[in-house]
Structures are given as structure tokens and as C-alpha cells.
Amino acid sequence: MRTYFDHEKLDVYRLELRFITWVTRLLLDIKQRSTNARIADVSDQLDRASLSALLNTAEGNGRRQRRTRAKFFDDARGSATECAACLDALVAKAVCSGGEIDEGKQLLLRIASMLTKLIERFDVSSSSSSSSSLIQEEPEEERFEDENEHERP
Known about the structure:
Helix content is 69%, strand content 0%. The chain is mainly alpha-helical. The protein is globular.
């Protein structure tokens, strides 16, 4: 593919195009299998979110201000995460199996990771911080109120 714009040179942009190709085939297959309107809602949202990730990446790469670029890349990452949730919903609704969406989830994980690196590169506020940009729940250690009362020095 011949490139005309800088965003077309980004690996993440090309990977997002690959995801759109993959998800388009999945959506066509789903449409042929089911006429359920509730499935159509998830499918439409998945289609919109995949396009949103691509467009935000392109627009963000065209911005000159670092913070603005980071914001668009962050929006693209949010859309990629939304795509992953839509795929999960299709499995939960028994429209697809986990195996059917595995390739898409792998692509989305790579996309989200690449966008995270771009965000860290251009976001002025995160470059000075050593904290992770991902928030995860940590399992709490189970403690009881009277646990220390029976211990002797």
C-alpha cells in the first residue's frame, strides 16, 4: 500500500486496519447467522468502535501539540478496549465462541499496547510520572480485626 500521510506509516494504524478487516468478516458472518436486533446493537457498536480507533489514531498523529496527540491516542485506546468488550458481549450472548474472537482479542491487545506507548511518549504529564497507565485491582490480603490480638511478642 502506497503511503501519502504520516499516519499511514504507523504500525498501530496498519494493525488497526488489519483488525477492521478481521472484524468486518466476523460481522458479516454474524449477520448471516442471526437476525436478533439485540445482536445488531452490539455488532453496530463494534463496527463504530473499530472505526473510531483508526480515525483517532490518524487524527492524533496529525496533531502538533504533544498533549493533544496523547489525547487522541488515548481516545483510540479507549475505542480498542470498547471493541474488546463488544467481542466479550458477543460471547456472553452466545453469538460467538471464545475461539472465534481470539484472533481479534490478540490484535486488540497489541493495538492497545502500542497506543499506550504512544500516549506515554506524547503525554507531558505521564512522562514525569513513574506510575503505570493501567489500573488493575489488587487482591486484598484477608485480615481479621482480632488477628493481632492473640500474638505475643
